[in-house]
Amino acid sequence: MPPAPGARAPRAAPRRPLGPPPRSLGSPLPLRRGEGAASLRVTRRRCLPIRQLIDIQPLTERALLVGAPRKGSPDATQVEEHLDELGRLADTAGAEVVGRTYQRIEAPTPNWYLGQGKVEELKGVLARTGSTLVLFDEALSPVQGTNLEQALAVRVMDRTELILDIFAIGARSAEAKMQVELAQLEYLLPRLTRMWTHLSRIRGGIGLRGPGETQLETDRRAIRRKLSLLKKRLEDVADHRANQRQGRRACPSAALVGYTNAGKSSILRALSGDDLFVEDRLFATLDTLTREVDVGGYR
Description:
The structure is a single chain. The protein has 299 residues and is an alpha/beta fold. The protein folds into three domains: 62-167, Rossmann fold (3-Layer(aba) Sandwich), CATH 3.40.50; 172-247, no CATH class; 252-299, no CATH class. The protein has helices at 37-46, 50-54, 76-93, 116-129, 142-152, 159-170, 174-188, 192-195, 215-247, 264-272; strands at residues 62-67, 96-102, 133-136, 155-158, 201-203, 212-214. The protein has a four-stranded parallel beta sheet, sandwiched between helices. A two-stranded antiparallel sheet has the order 5-6.
């Protein structure tokens, strides 16, 4: 029926699309009177999927490999082989190797291990390669590590610390995790000053030992307590394993021994038929495994 003359035509109801309403992560904020396009843009930005706000890729360390062999000891080929293995360790730990260098020395210097001229040269190499990490093939003392980090303004690790970091990644059993933590804490204790940054003092008072102690001393005491606890727990695990070996004493046994990534887990997997974890990388498996194997009708 047509509307009467002068009457306003009724407004048609909005048409809803077919199918279920679209899903959203949250309702947009209502616009207040007087707000325009700027407020609308803010509202839409707040409705972006959460994935776009928190999906941040971790930065990959760019590692520079440094060797310092003694003069007259390994030849150039052996030095390069050592650095090749250090590079594979870095890859296992998730770092990208961007360069390598080495210097033959008569003896390590007490301050930087290397000579001061080589340390200055490393600064230029770090700038050219954009390295964020220096990996030393030799073991560094706590003083040498501290001085190198201060001189180069990047993190410095030696082979031992790098391997412990890889162990922490690969440890799966409770025993392996305790052993790795024990080794890390024993390595960390003499280097705590280098790694500790919050050098504030705690005032003495009721319940505190002495007139006061630095937080560094508190951390050292906490690490020593944790070391004592881990050693006690590992002693209990060792006693349990000794009992297990005693129960298997009547059975003939053999051991697979070899260098890391030599194929020990692959051999045990082939002999036992178990689905053991194997991977072509250094220190891929750390746990000690025992399996029953049928060889010519004998177990």
